[in-house]
Amino acid sequence: DAGVIQSPRHEVTEMGQEVTLRCKPISGHNSLFWYRQTMMRGLELLIYFNNNVPIDDSGMPEDRFSAKMPNASFSTLKIQPSEPRDSAVYFCASNWVGGELFFGEGSRLTVL
Amino acid sequence: AQRVTQPEKLLSVFKGAPVELKCNYSYSGSPELFWYVQYSRQRLQLLLRHISRESIKGFTADLNKGETSFHLKKPFAQEEDSAMYYCALSGRGYSGAGSYQLTFGKGTKLSVIP
Fold first, then answer.
1. Which residues contact A71 (CB under 8 A, 6 or more apart)?
2. What is the spatial distance between Cα A60 and Cα B37, in angstroms, rounded to a whole number?
3. How far is B60 from chain A (nearest CA, A)?
4. Are B70 and B86 in contact (CB under 8 A)?
5. Which residue in A has a C-alpha nearest to residue B88's C-alpha?
6. A50 vs B45, B99, B104: nearest CB
7. B95 has pLDDT over 60
8. Strand ranges (DSSP E) for chain A?
9. What is the pLDDT of residues B18-60, one digit of tens each?
């Protein structure tokens, strides 16, 4: 397995634009997590899914953020409209319940 | 609520010196503790978990429930140990989904000086 795959690896956009980050979890994993990493706040859990169902989205900062998981092999994190303070590295991770959490390589977002 | 505290943002040690990365946690139940490592511009990866009680790359960590700590230690630091280290705690979500939700500390950047 290629591991958790995220795209794009880098995204530079202007304030106000829509940003969509994508994630393909490891096949067979039933939980998927979105994290945001910044220097100031470290790793923050934004939302996680179990069996494609959102379980806890309390970490989603604002209504500008939304996440979907239409099937077991794909998830998106969308920011609309984007703001400079959204600049961060966004990680997707997946696991089987109770198992090791595997991370993707991250999507580095810069909002100008 | 579960919380993980890593008091040091940056830790610099000389090669060959002992290393201790501190981690304290707050959790009402019986937690599972982990250390994750992130080398420069790479993905986070699991270093070790307390239930395994193993040594990985010379690192060990012991869960001290009395002090609610899970410090990461290595007797002799190597240059290749320079990385970002995250302590994480898993508490079972009570939503019924049974998924383990990891809460991370803010991380400690370890810099090993040659």
1. A52
2. 24
3. 18
4. no
5. A43
6. B99
7. no
8. 5-7, 10-13, 19-24, 31-38, 42-50, 53-56, 65-71, 74-79, 88-95, 102-103, 107-111
9. 999 999 999 887 788 999 999 988 889 999 988 777 888 999 9
